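Exercise: predict the structure of this protein bound to 3,4-dihydroxyphenylalanine.
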Amino acid sequence: MQDTLNAILAKAPAELATLKNRAEFEATKARYVGPHGEFTALMKQLGTVPKDERPAMGKLINESKGRLQVQLDAALQRIANAEIAAQVGPAIDPTLPSPDAGPGTFHPLTLVREEMCRILRKTGFTVVEGPEVETEYYCFDALNTPADHPARDAKDTFYFPDAARFGNVTKKVDGEKYLLRTHTSSVQIRTMLKGQPPIRIVSPGRVYRRDTTDATHSANFHQLECLYVDKNVTVRDLKALLDYIFASLLGKDTKTRFRPHYFGYTEPSFEVDLSAKHLLKVNKDWIEIGGCGMVDPSVFEAVGYDPEVWSGYAFGMGLERLAMLVYGIDDIRYFYQNDVRFLKQFA
Ligand code: DAH
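Solution:
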């Protein structure tokens, strides 16, 4: 009996080491300790052993069974660990460089934004940013946009509930509402309140409008705003700068044209159209690219500048529009879908 037990314990480890899954394990376990297993058979033999030897023999079998159980537990644990490892996949080292070629590509909107900022920096403009959560004062009131102006309607602008609090954006006027800025023009006011002229800033950023998304509209899009304040600034300076930046971006044969328009914060105001060879890609002669004008005296008064001394121009344009033109993209939704087949084209 002792020899039989030793033989079983001696062969078990090698056999258990070959088991690959739970089914094999259960079958092997049954051969040892199942109802028809070797140990069970030994227990049955106990009845044939002389009575006085039985207790010692029983103890021996139980001890051996206990040692076998330890081996079985270890084998099952090894199989369970292998199952988890198979699910998790091979171990990775997150500090290693990506196996893909290069670190990825820039988004086309980033490319156009950076190129415009680069061109404007060369011309003496400084890049500044403003908050996307704004108050009515910075987005509308200080920009001479009265309370009943359609742009301020809750159908067009995202307002926050009165109870909303934004610690980093302080309200300028008692009772005014927080909103998601509808244009980057709010940065004009923030910049002028912070410093004195001359001012020459460019401010790119996200803006929000309650628009239904289609091929040319999105409730969230991007603008680029410029403000120049100095003495004796004229419409000619404005036109010259726009001609220069668009020629730099799109090529020498690029033309701009002004169409009279109304914005509360500029007088006179214009809409700017562009004509460039890139337009062939989107099948048009002229495309509207933004708004501009000479800073309205009421805006200077709102920020405490003397309109008799200071003059300036401002313009704002949509970055998506510009990127669509540069790359010949015909649907604004491509920008936001993060489809690598789209993004990889701008490597
Ligand atoms: N804020 C205008 C818009 O979102 C664009 C614009 C027009 C900006 C005239 C300006 C400006 O700075 O002077 O449509």
